[in-house]
Amino acid sequence: MSNQLEDPRLTAAGLFAEAFQGLNQRFAQQLERYRLSGVEFEVLMRLARSPMQRLRMTDLAGQTSLSTSGCTRVVDRMDRDGLVRREACDTDRRSSYAVITETGMARLNEVLPGHLELIQQWFTGLLTPAQLDTTLDSLRRIRDAVHPCATAGTEETSSVGAA
């Protein structure tokens, strides 16, 4: 039993979870100042970085931590706030798109400088360029294995799908 407790896989998973939680706490504090939740920020980022700054609702749900119904609720709330809008799909009446609005882009542009500073201070700036490249490759490999829908609806999956 004690050999299992010393297993480096437990250490790797624990360190990853602790790093993720620490970063998310710092991000949440910053986003709160801009009246955005973490998931709203994620939606804005996904839309802003997608072709034509829009995604089908099903693809947006697949790219985020949201269920289809959760995605609908978040997009509806963001639509009421003027950050995104819905557009009907020309080819499929059952589908609709979430599209970032000018107001949504303006809010995102307000948030990004401070957000990038936090990323630099608490993540990328702690790594050498070679370590960062290796980390990005590793994270993409893990993401593609555990969350294959994370790049749904994008044309270029190597960078666009990464939030």
How would you explain this protein's 3D organization?
The structure is a single chain. This protein is mostly helical. The protein has one domain (2-151): Winged helix-like DNA-binding domain superfamily/Winged helix DNA-binding domain (Arc Repressor Mutant, subunit A, Orthogonal Bundle). The chain contains seven helices and three strands, in the order αααβααββαα. A three-stranded antiparallel sheet has the order 1-3-2. The protein starts with a helix and ends in a 17-residue tail after the last helix. Residues 156-162 have low confidence and may be disordered.
Fold blueprint:
Elements: H1 2-5, H2 8-32, H3 38-48, E1 54-56, H4 57-63, H5 68-80, E2 84-88, E3 96-100, H6 102-122, H7 129-146
Antiparallel strand pairs: 1-3, 2-3
**Termini, distance in Å?**
39 Å
Number of strand segments:
3
The averaged pLDDT comes out at 90
Tally of distinct domains: 1
The CATH topology name reads: Arc Repressor Mutant, subunit A
Query: Which spans have pLDDT < 50 for at least 5 consecutive residues?
Result: 156-162
Strand order of the largest sheet: 1-3-2
Sum up the overall morphology in one term: globular
In the CATH hierarchy, the architecture is Orthogonal Bundle
Output the structural class. mainly alpha
Q: CATH homologous superfamily, by name?
A: Winged helix-like DNA-binding domain superfamily/Winged helix DNA-binding domain
Work out the helicity level: 55-70%
Count of helix runs: 7
Largest sheet, if any?
Answer: 3 strands, antiparallel
Order of helices and strands: HHHEHHEEHH
Radius of gyration: 18 Å
